[in-house]
Amino acid sequence: MSTVNIARQGEQAIARSRRSPLRAFEESRFFPLALLLPILFFFVALNVIPTIWMIGMSFYSYSLMSPAPPSFIAIDNYVKIYNDADLWSAFSRTFVFVVLAVGIETVLGVLLGFLFWGSSHMPGRRLALTLLFVPMVVTPVASGLFWRLIYEPTFGVANYFVQLLTGSKIDFLTNVNWAFGAVLFVDIWMWTPFMILMTLAALGSVPKAELEAAEVDRLSIWQRLWHVIWPHGKFILMLGVLLRTIDAYKTTDLVFLMTNGGPGNITELIGLKLYRYAFASLNIGFSSALAVILLLIAISFTSIYLWVLNLRRYREGA
Fold this sequence. Notes:
The chain is mostly helical. It has helices spanning 3-18, 21-26, 31-57, 76-83, 85-117, 125-132, 134-137, 140-151, 157-166, 179-204, 208-216, 221-249, 253-258, 270-280, 284-309, 311-317, and strands at residues 60-61, 71-72. Helix 12 (221-249) packs antiparallel against helix 15.
């Protein structure tokens, strides 16, 4: 071994000996795990443990209104949910609400997103986008109270224009023919900007080179949408649809503030039913079983989303 190599190895040994313990730990294989430990701790403490407790309580009869201790009843809570016609009605209303809300928000969001994307040089474009995103950042509590005042039959702005057009007033939130649509309209007003944002993000992910090539090849607008824009933007747009579906599916605060589920149960969605079982009736066992079912439905939404996104890969594998 040459003298130069021996000297180099000696210098490396001296450098390793002078290396601080912290530096040695950073270069070890345990350092990435140490960075993840705080996140894992909070995830387990705030998500895993409460979920396991909720699943366990769903097999018990336990009410905070009763002095009796929890008693194991197996799947009786799930059987009660299956036989509860009122809950099935709430599920059906929630399904209609989700389909209409997410569908209309997606269509409006895509159309307005394309409009703003194609008018990059329009004067006041940034101001218009800022104003459009205001409903999305307002809390549902503030939005519910705001629109409750707008719908108010005596001095509400909505009834002012209705009276100008028809000569009469409508009590939107207590009329069985208008209450559901009134709440649905507020949800669309709040969350269409979110779909606009997701559409702009999806369009921004399309390479400009491919758009320019499509223009050079004189592809029609539909060919550009299907062959250029959709393959690049579908992941972001579908993610927006998934997030809105899950969020609309658990809508509670908006309905609670505007109608409290009325008139009758016209606007009583499944999230509000769960709230009443858990925090009004304090029926912990039954509400836990209902929460488990809602969690499984949300997981199924996510699974369908992942399957749709990977459909092309599945076909290629087949």
